[in-house]
TrEMBL record:
It is found in: Nucleus. The chain holds residues 132 to 528 of 528 of the full protein. It is an enzyme of class 2 (transferase). Template-independent DNA polymerase which catalyzes the random addition of deoxynucleoside 5'-triphosphate to the 3'-end of a DNA initiator. One of the in vivo functions of this enzyme is the addition of nucleotides at the junction (N region) of rearranged Ig heavy chain and T-cell receptor gene segments during the maturation of B- and T-cells. Its cofactor is Mg(2+). GO terms for biological process: DNA modification; double-strand break repair via nonhomologous end joining. Its main location: nucleus. Belongs to the DNA polymerase type-X family. It catalyses: DNA(n) + a 2'-deoxyribonucleoside 5'-triphosphate = DNA(n+1) + diphosphate. Its EC number is 2.7.7.7. This is DNA-directed DNA/RNA polymerase mu. One of its GO terms (molecular function) is metal ion binding. Keywords: Magnesium, Metal-binding, Nucleotidyltransferase, Nucleus, Terminal addition, Transferase. It comes from the Eukaryota.
């Protein structure tokens, strides 16, 4: 045990947007435990508690080395009594009773499975649980009416719950690029979300599209979606027009009806050949040398060389989010959609509480000066907010 005099004491600022959080987390056991409690709180309509656990986990993610004793936590922000108790249990006993009980609870397990279906939120999952539906099988047998999103979510459940790899994200990026370029040459496509932060896997792939000439992006989303649909790349899509309105005076004044901020939640059908050269495909080839081919009755030869098990689908479903923003709002959209979710929340809290400003994915408003602050880069927005610039790879709070 480290004695008190020797213990390293860390100095960490309290807002996540004031500090750098890289992906190399030295306290995964502790942060996994706190994240699980956060998730359980969020699934139980206790958002306040959820945020408290998320903030506590984020502080531990920012530490330069593993925590070995409670004395090291002295003076750290955002660690409430409840989080400290969980940390203490893990450091002293190797596990937290509360975390283990939560993990094993039927309610938590059912909520995880059901909200794991794309299109199913906490409210729907709770209603189903009240009707004794705890599993996918029970849901299917119940004859519950599912909306289009939920039907697609259930149909592609396994694919959508398997993490998306970087190689798959790159392959999707190529398809999105081809789609956008064929309907609006000159448009710009940027990866946002977790992959922009350097994550190696994600639950989806997120893209932001803009055009250097203001206004040229109007009406882009339906055209991109049509192109993707015509090429057979979409298993599901829902395009929503954002209610955000803009005028010449400032992005929040509804002087014009022009709606310029659109997003599309989709499920892509990614052909396996698009990610060829990845480990997955290599393994498949290695395990099936040509001379064993005829012996395996459930394998078929395709195109003379390539072999696949009969009935093996040659594609996989991947969640993809597309956002279109006018160039005048691009920096705000980029900052707002890069995440992490906690980093975004902390940026808005910092803006409101410390600077009397309102930050959104469209604009930054200064309440004291009663005006919008323009920005063409993320760096400028951090500067307006009086914060040191934090690059995407260090926004993994
Ligand atoms: P993951 O997919 O790898 O699991 O992580 P992620 O990429 O960080 O999460 P995400 O759920 O794909 O969300 C990406 C970012 O987009 C995140 O910062 C939150 C933000 N975001 C939404 N929905 C909305 C929204 O409706 N409006 C705005 N402005 N931002 C949103 O997810
Ligand atoms: Mn994402
Ligand atoms: Mn997303």
């Amino acid at each position: 045990q480290v004695n008190e005099a020797e213990a390293v004491v860390f100095n960490i600022p309290s807002y996540a947007c004031q500090r750098r959080t890289a992906l190399d987390n030295h306290n995964t056991v502790l942060t996994d435990a706190l994240s699980l409690l956060a998730e359980n709180a969020e699934l139980s309509d206790e958002d306040g508690r959820g945020v408290a656990f998320r903030r506590a986990a984020a502080v531990l993610k920012a530490l330069p080395e593993p925590v070995t004793g409670m004395t090291q936590l002295r003076g750290l922000p955002c660690l409430g009594g409840h989080s400290l108790r969980v940390i203490k249990d893990i450091l002293e006993d190797g596990a937290s009773g509360e975390v283990e009980l939560t993990k094993e609870s039927e309610r938590f397990k059912a909520l995880k499975v059901l909200t794991g279906i794309f299109g199913v939120g906490v409210k729907t999952a709770e209603r189903w649980i009240r009707e004794q539906i705890h599993s996918l099988q029970q849901l299917q047998d119940s004859g519950q009416t599912l909306n289009r999103a939920q039907q697609a979510g259930l149909e592609h459940y396994d694919d959508l719950n398997q993490p998306v790899t970087k190689a798959e994200a790159d392959a999707i990026g190529e398809i999105v690029r081809e789609a956008v370029m064929s309907v609006l040459p000159g448009a710009q496509i940027t990866v946002i979300g977790g992959f922009r932060r350097g994550k190696l896997t994600g639950h989806d792939v997120d893209f932001l599209v803009t055009h250097p000439e203001e206004g040229r992006e109007v009406g882009l989303m339906p055209k991109v979606v049509s192109w993707l649909e015509s090429q057979g790349f979409l298993l599901y899509q829902k395009t929503t027009r954002n209610s955000y309105l803009e005028s010449k005076d400032g992005p929040a004044r509804p002087a014009s009806n022009m709606d310029r901020f659109e997003r599309c939640f989709s499920i892509f059908k990614l052909p396996e050949e698009e990610t060829r050269g990845t480990k997955q495909t290599e393994t498949l080839t290695e395990n099936t040398p040509e001379d064993t081919c005829s012996l395996a009755a459930n394998w078929q030869v395709k195109g003379g060389e390539q072999m696949k098990p009969a009935g093996h689908k040659a594609w996989r479903a991947v969640r993809v989010d597309l956002v279109v923003s006018p160039i005048s709002q691009f920096a705000f959209a980029l900052l707002g959609w890069t995440g992490s979710k906690l980093f975004e929340r902390e940026l808005r809290r910092w803006a409101g509480h410390e600077k009397a400003m309102s930050l959104s994915s469209h604009a930054l408003y200064d309440n004291k000066q009663s005006r919008y602050l323009r920005a063409t880069s993320e760096e400028e927005i951090f500067a307006h907010l009086g914060l040191d610039y934090i690059p995407p790879s260090e926004r993994n709070a």
